[in-house]
Amino acid sequence: MSAPSSQVTGLQPPVLPGNAADQRLCQSGLPTVELCIDQAPLTLPRPDAFFAALSEDFPVLANLQLRSRMFGAWEWRGTLATPVLIASWNRAEPHLRRQLERWAESGCIRGARLSNPVVQLQDLVVKPELNGLFGFKRGFDLQRQRWMVGFHDPGHGQPVVKLFKTQNINFFDGTSAASPRVLVAASETSA
Predict the structure, then answer these.
(1) Which residue segment(s) compose the domain that 84 sits in?
(2) Extended strands (E) in the chain
(3) Are residues 103 and 129 in the same domain?
(4) Is residue 9 part of a domain?
(5) pTM of the complete model
(6) What are phi and psi of 156, to 5 degrees?
(7) 14 in a domain, yes or no?
(8) What's the domain count of the chain?
């Protein structure tokens, strides 16, 4: 996928990882994802040309709608109402992130922001009120062997990041996800 032709040069901030906005986007009960593309104001191509280029390869973006156009930063958002849409987003997210990073590094865009992969909490015994909540995968804590998940905690009324065991997370990928450490150990033993 190539970038629309651009005349932008200069400093390019990196693609930002999902942040507190990720947790805020789950406040409604269903996961809402966002994609923001920042382009210098009054330069061509506009951010919508980059969005259109991405949409050709990633049909899940058809579920996002343009929400704001602040100077050169345009934001698209969409609610993922079915497990199929969530799985599609999760499959597309790493590829979208890499493409946005390439465009930022080459100076085609100033930067971008993209929601992290969506997960759903399940089978929690100690805090059953969190079962069924959606959140965003933020990484894996190797020392504690837990996934970091950002979500809107209705008990606290604010965004939080908490650690969860692998069996307490639905990754929407059709497989039972193993921890990264277990995957590394398995690949080392087969070599």
Answers:
(1) 20-118
(2) 32-38, 65-70, 73-79, 111-114, 118-121, 134-141, 146-153, 158-164, 169-170
(3) no
(4) no
(5) 0.74
(6) -105, -15
(7) no
(8) 2
Contact 125, 115 (CB under 8 A): no
d(CA 95, CA 93): 5
87 lies in the same domain as 134: no
- Closest alpha carbon to 91 in 183, 172, 169: 172
Q: How confident is the model at residue 191 (pLDDT cuts 50, 70, 90)?
A: very low
Contact 171, 119 (CB under 8 A): yes
Q: 26 and 116 in contact (C-beta within 8 Å)? A: no
Handedness of CA 15, 19, 24, 25 (dihedral sign): positive
What is the band of 101 on the pLDDT scale with cuts at 50, 70, 90?
A: very high
From the centroid of its chain, how far is CA 78?
12
DSSP 38: E
Query: If 0-12 CB within 10 Å is exposed, 13-18 middle and 19+ buried, where does residue 65 land?
Result: exposed
Q: Are residues 143 and 109 in the same domain?
A: no
Predicted pLDDT of residue 64:
95
Q: What is the predicted pLDDT for the residue at 19?
A: 47
β-strand pairing of 158-164 with 146-153:
antiparallel
Q: The domain that contains 74 carries what CATH number?
A: 3.30.70
What is the C-alpha to C-alpha distance for residues 129 and 84, in angstroms, rounded to an integer? 24
Is residue 11 in a domain? no
**107 part of a folded domain:** yes
